[in-house]
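Hello,

Our lab assistant flagged a job as stuck in the queue for most of the afternoon. It eventually completed. Since we weren't sure the result was trustworthy after the delay, we are filing this so someone can double-check. Below is the sequence as submitted and the structure that was eventually returned. Let us know if re-running is recommended.
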Amino acid sequence: MVSMVFACSAWGMLGAKVGDDYVPQRSDYNIRTEVTTRDDDGSIIYDRVITYLTDDRNHTDTLQSEALPLDTADWSRQAFGEIMEQDFNFDGIPDLQIGTGPMNSSGNFTYDVFIWDDYVHRFLHLEDQPPLFDPYVDESQEQIVSTFELDGELEIVRYQWKDGKLVEVSKEIIDDSELTED
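-- returned structure --
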């Protein structure tokens, strides 16, 4: 298990309410996202993703993520605001990955990560996170794997936790022609 301390962004933190001794647990939250849009010179673009976290006492807090700054009028909302709950830091408690959009026409969807800190009972934004494209958790190696496809090549980057930060431990580039369908 990795012990971590994270700096919190002003928007990326929620937690225990003061005054009634109620301390929310990770399992107390219902989670949903909403993608907001704005008109930018006549174009509709996805601006930000708001994640609503409602606890058992019906108190709602929000986390905010910036959507990728693309002219997304032609993109489907596919992964904008997608919620993935995985144990990102291998402490046995599900964390949040919130989809912030595609990087290019190959997809390469990016995610904003919020780690549940059981000590302070709140989600903390993973500050200074490396670019994570279509990430998945490799539990057997305790690694986060990011995959990026472009121009017939697939880049696979593996990260591990070191001193509370995700650090790149390996990078591999594979030609698409070498990939086989399993």
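-- support follow-up --
The delay was a queue issue, not a problem with the job. The result is valid. The CA atoms of residues 36 and 140 lie 37 Å apart. The longest strand covers residues 43-54.
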